[in-house]
């Protein structure tokens, strides 16, 4: 990957927003607040549960809470939990604000930089007619004002810049200087489990600004790399970012449910934290589309956080916080998916479905909390990968 | 200077209400934002002191352009963590109390298992 001497700051590519010292300090405060909440405040929820919510639930219902839904009911009125939730929600909103301030200040410069970037072999294909799916129009996912697709001006890149900076703060730097941990981790799993696999063409679905996409250029230098997303601002930014880093990617504005690529065009299709931002119907259409797009022997791999069935009920309850508190309406249901069942439903051989845990590729153990909890999805130190081989 | 383009302020979707009185939700949001602005000011003072110590004039331009290196960032991280311990004192008090009460609900056999565990 591109040389990055300092592993504790975000890599400064050609379109990363600049910050004044005050703007940077405001973002650093949000990062500290998030880390403080995750490492020192959130853990108290478990004590509140054991000390009062669980005994109260048991007394009221005659049985101890068993499922994560039971625990949610038990905790719904707990004052410690609700105060932590309120602070956690605020930290998320403060994060977007802290990032919007410098982006608003320099947006014309960012647009000019992105427009002047096209020099290398990568391409950008936008489709202003594309219908933005309902699950992105209903609420702004993870509270990012405007989501991935809203344009605030002509040739807008604002929410690409906002997303790029905010992901670094959200992950508290634990996804690396390029925010590439999910892609790097997925690649590590593929290389360990399919050492002879040599994809000719790779598709990254829901690529946003290309955090994970660019890693595939280095992992398989012979392959052609494609990225699709429904949002024009994130794609313009992704293209400019990739060009400034000398990576060749073909970005296009498409819905992963139905693309314009030919049958069997890809050997490898990947997505990184995409599935939980779709819907039950959409993710099945996406799997059907993967089946159409894959060549025989090809692989589809989706990276997400663990399904609730693999977690103790209390941890699942905490991981589920985002469903109701962070504008992630499909988060909870997507954590109940069963890969083999989905493979069977979408025309794949269920015997070729897989699910696995892969340790995070980026070494940043000192900032990990080692538990999956609300608003700290990168803290667990591993990603859950699932998919199927055609 | 070009006309500023305003980004959307609120994420679409109903905002959860965490307290019986919505004014408490607003007050908490303002308090946390203020805590952030105090940290920003403190960093600015720290920047002025560091520039002065290095013999540079702490002008507005120099302060605005200051980029803390990894060592300074680590010191500021540590400062902010202590600062948040102080600001969030009432939360940490409650947590300490809950921790004691949770320990009392633990069955005695669980304590035996804990002392026998190797990790």
Describe the structure.
The complex is a heterodimer of chains A (390) and B (119). Chain A is α/β, with parallel strands linked by helices and 390 residues long. Chain A has 2 domains: 13-42 and 78-390, Rossmann fold (3-Layer(aba) Sandwich), CATH 3.40.50; 43-77, no CATH class. Helices cover 44% and strands 13% of the residues of chain A. Chain A contains 14 helices and 8 strands. Chain A has helices at residues 21-41, 44-61, 68-75, 79-115, 134-137, 158-170, 181-193, 213-219, 232-244, 280-293, 313-319, 321-325, 331-334, 339-345; strands spanning 123-125, 201-205, 224-229, 250-253, 266-272, 294-304, 353-359, 382-389. In chain A, strands 1-4-3-2-5-6-8-7 form an 8-stranded mixed sheet. In chain A, helix 4 (79-115) crosses helix 6. The radius of gyration of chain A is 21 Å and the shape is globular. The two termini of chain A are 30 Å apart. Chain B is mostly helical. Chain B has one domain (22-116). Chain B is built from 5 helices and no strands. Chain B has helices spanning 22-53, 60-65, 70-87, 89-104, 108-116. The radius of gyration of chain B is 23 Å and the shape is flat. At the A-B interface, helix 1, helix 2, helix 4 and helix 6 of A face helix 1, helix 2, helix 3 and helix 4 of B.
Counted up, domains of chain A total 2
Oligomer: heterodimer
> Stretches of chain A where pLDDT falls below 50 for ≥5 residues?
none
What string gives the helices and strands of chain B in order?
Answer: HHHHH
User: How far from one another are the termini of chain A?
Assistant: 30 Å
Under the CATH scheme, which class of the largest domain in chain A?
Alpha Beta
Overall average pLDDT of chain B: 93
Structural class of chain A: alpha/beta
Q: What count of helical segments of chain A does DSSP give?
A: 14
Count all strands of chain A and give the number. Answer: 8
Q: What's the CATH H-level homologous superfamily of the largest domain in chain A?
A: Vaccinia Virus protein VP39
Main sheet overview of chain A: 8 strands, mixed
CATH topology name of the largest domain in chain A: Rossmann fold
Radius of gyration of chain A: 21 Å
* Uncertain stretches of chain B: none
CATH architecture of the largest domain in chain A: 3-Layer(aba) Sandwich
> Rg of chain B to the nearest angstrom?
23 Å
Strand order, sheet with most strands of chain A: 1-4-3-2-5-6-8-7
Helix-strand sequence of chain A: HHHHEHHHEHEHEEHEHHHHEE
Strand segment count of chain B: 0
